[in-house]
Amino acid sequence: MGGEFAKGTMNVPLLDLKAQYETIRTDVDAAVRGIMESARFIGGPEVSGLEQEVARYSQCAHAVGCASGTDALLLALWALGVGPGDEVITSAYSFFASAGVITNNGATPVFVDIDPRTYNLDPLKLEAAFTPRTKAVIAVSLYGQCCDIPAIKAVCDRHQAFLIEDAAQSIGSEWEGKRSGSMSDFGGFSFFPSKNLGGAGDGGMVVTQSEEFAERVRLLREHGSKPKYFHSLVGTNSRLDALQAAILRVKLRHLDRWSEARARNAALYNGLFEGSRVVRPHHDPRTRHIYNQYVIRVPKRDELRMFLTERTIGNEVYYPVPLHLQKCFASLGYKEGDMPNAEAAAAETIALPIYPELTEEQIRYVAAAVREFVDS
Questions:
Q1: pLDDT-based confidence at 352, cuts 50/70/90?
Q2: How far apart are CA 115 and CA 371, in angstroms?
């Protein structure tokens, strides 16, 4: 296949939000105009409407909007009373927020290795990480595939620990028919623009089945104030803007269609990589995979990145350094070799374009370029 593709023959970005916008421009523009004309920018019917719709979509009793996906996790830990002296177990392989929120609440992160196929926290390795100080577990549903929440929750229940699902990448994903975010004490969603359900800026949401937990998060996101200027506890300012909520309500109506298009694109990639040395994403048959990312494993990953970039093919590494080896956590005493699956994933994985608006021609171009490098 060498030489079949000249450099820059086709431009395939990692994500094309302009292409998405063109499909919903009229409705999004109307939603934005409605907020500007109402001049109600904080709270109001758009925020409460989105909360109700996300709760229903996620099979949850309650949803509480907040400023970001990071704050969703931070508020959940805060609502559970996690603080100094506590330990919180999480995956060694995730976006930094999964561990950063633990430290920001004054607790100590404890890392567990991942399943090398799904990249999610390995339930079989979880039990050994518990100590008398363990207060909670943050299980990450990475790349759009719900992790094995029932198995993880069974371990948490034995140790009387809380369970939070970091569902930032997995809204709409399912485990045996149950939606991501609905099976734990709290779920946390991110509306960062690159997500399957992405806003025009930062935004997040906490979901829960507990009215008590939901009310505590509502208080915490608004300085612990209810009614206004009367504070029963000390909270912070972490509200979801009405402008973001209005845009997200438009997009939520299209979310299942977009997720299905991502799954079709993944299936096409999978077929094109048949017989290649490319390791394709593992889809656990118990899950509905929404493919927030399409992540392959290859030898010489960094060289492949350069090869693809030269051919104007967008790509990204999620994530190049596992959490236990981040410099800021050096004091915890982890060393290279402690989490071999996470470390191998950090060295070998690369994400390819998977967004719904990709054409078949673009996907075939990307797959052919990957195979040209990997298999030649």
A1: very high
A2: 26
